[in-house]
Write a sequence for this structure.
């Protein structure tokens, strides 16, 4: 497997996509995730699925149906699966050690929910000096009391575009922009 870049797909689990918790553009988001994962695999780069493990909390109990990844995601045996225990994927998980083992310094980030786990992971990755590309149409969330899901996504894409990075950099690009530069420039 090549070194340098990794695709993170955060919390795309059945328990986050129920009739009580509808998400914005889920079919489109999953379609783009699957295409990105295919591009990474073809370039022999790691695809890392993150699953929230809520063991002991009564939600997202490991190996329960709500813990499982969505059936529409195309997960391959070569993909890496890592459990997480808080909004920030790096918190008490194996992600940091796995990225170090893979010599990954650049992360392409997708997932659910924009304003919780995706946001927390981006903030944490910035403080760890990763180069980050957020897929602007590769993350989703639900309606909030004061904002539509579409507005939440729009807001966070704007925030990430305007963040002051640390030693790493942060880019926000949509799937088509990434695909145009892949594999020659991005991957």
């Amino acid at each position: 497997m090549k070194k340098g870049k990794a695709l993170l797909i955060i919390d795309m689990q059945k328990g986050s996509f129920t009739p009580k918790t509808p998400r914005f553009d889920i079919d489109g988001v999953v379609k783009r995730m699957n295409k990105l994962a295919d591009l990474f695999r073809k370039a022999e780069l790691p695809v890392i699925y993150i699953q929230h493990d809520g063991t002991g909390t009564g939600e997202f109990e490991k190996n329960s149906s709500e813990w499982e990844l969505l059936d529409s995601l195309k997960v391959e045996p070569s993909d890496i699966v890592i459990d997480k225990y808080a909004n920030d994927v790096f918190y008490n998980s194996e992600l940091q050690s796995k990225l170090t083992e893979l010599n990954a310094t650049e992360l392409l980030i997708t997932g659910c929910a924009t304003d919780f786990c995706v946001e927390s992971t981006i903030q944490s990755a910035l403080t760890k000096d990763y180069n980050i590309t957020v897929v602007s149409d590769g993350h989703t969330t639900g309606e909030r009391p004061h904002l539509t899901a579409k507005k939440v996504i729009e807001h966070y894409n704007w925030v990430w575009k305007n963040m002051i990075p640390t030693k790493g950099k942060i880019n926000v690009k949509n799937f088509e922009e990434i695909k145009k530069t892949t594999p020659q420039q991005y991957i």
